[in-house]
DNA sequence: CCTTGTGAAATAGTTCACAGCA
DNA sequence: TGCTGTGAACTATTTCACAAGG
């Protein structure tokens, strides 16, 4: 693991990991970079190069052990432990996020949810309590939270993000349609379907 | 507009457009690339270079007219018309997508929704009818659909995407956690919060 | 002055192509 | 033979830096 690893590489590792998990559950024992590339629509060289930043996981002439490579990626990505997540904003979108079954099996625990109007929003929340957002600071002080998911309206999002960061949360998954301003030590990822659609219409406009 | 425009540039235009829309509604008349860059956390040079692929929209010594630049981007991105969208999969996630208020004001009309179990899923769908997915092909033949949003379980997603493409839909917004296989003329964007979280845990693991 | 638009320079990222090993 | 791991070559993207215009 010598040099600085490009962010684009890191963002591809979860994709590889997910594919390998699928191969594992289908009982595949060995896979080549060619096969991985075919399944993902990327070049085999890219996969080999990406993995080479982290170590030598393959066997010449054979390929990669699916179990071994999945385990290595699990460690590299920090998926060998569970992560504590809070969700702020429990409107329609927030409720969909809270009830999404995909986080738990990957090690993400939504340990608390917050809203400005906790009683109104509690309806339809399976088991999770919705806490008043005024409690955010004291709760963050009481327990280390790794990741904050923001699902409040655009107008409140920056303030919520600032409060999360002040409380020591330095990874933010932002569903609000704003370009969040954060200090350099904080990482933000944006989930934004409208931006994705607007990138597609550019191409639709010409090709058809 | 001479040469081939990089995809990364196109993906930033919607971000610029959104910021400009906000400035417009706040009554800001003129903005510099420096100010735009400050608001978005990118360099002013990048904004100027990106815009220069499409024309000369600024005034030296002054900056950009917010109205003018917003209008130019609207045209470039094809946002001066409405786009027809179908949504396949009306489970918890699909219902949240169907009821999201952010698509309509940006020109995206969800004209139909589909599910394998339309009666069960209709509960809680405000106004939109849920049609049986077996009708997908005939409906796509009857009217040109621009974009398909896929919100079905992972196991069914590739089949749904294939059916959309066969029906002439060549832009796909995929919420299912799979790496979709599509022919070169089809564009896919992935909305995948778990991949985003897994990219973040890589960094959490080291820095803290 | 101030700020754009843009070639040129610098960086970043991808793909090639092949030595080396099972 | 088949496939990895990796420098080197190539391609893409960003940033610099400055002429030119208001």
Q: What features would you describe in this structure?
A:
Two copies of one chain form a homodimer. The first copy, chain A, has 208 residues and is of the alpha/beta class. Chain A folds into two domains: 7-77, Winged helix-like DNA-binding domain superfamily/Winged helix DNA-binding domain (Arc Repressor Mutant, subunit A, Orthogonal Bundle), CATH 1.10.10.10; 83-195, Rossmann fold (3-Layer(aba) Sandwich), CATH 3.40.50.720. Chain A is built from nine helices and nine strands. The relative contact order of chain A is 0.09. The model of chain A has no long low-confidence stretch (mean pLDDT 95). At the A-B interface, helix 1, helix 5 and helix 9 of A face helix 1, helix 5 and helix 9 of B. The first copy, chain A, binds a DNA duplex (22 and 22 nucleotides) through residues 6, 8-9, 32-34, 43-46, 48-49, 51-52, 56-64.
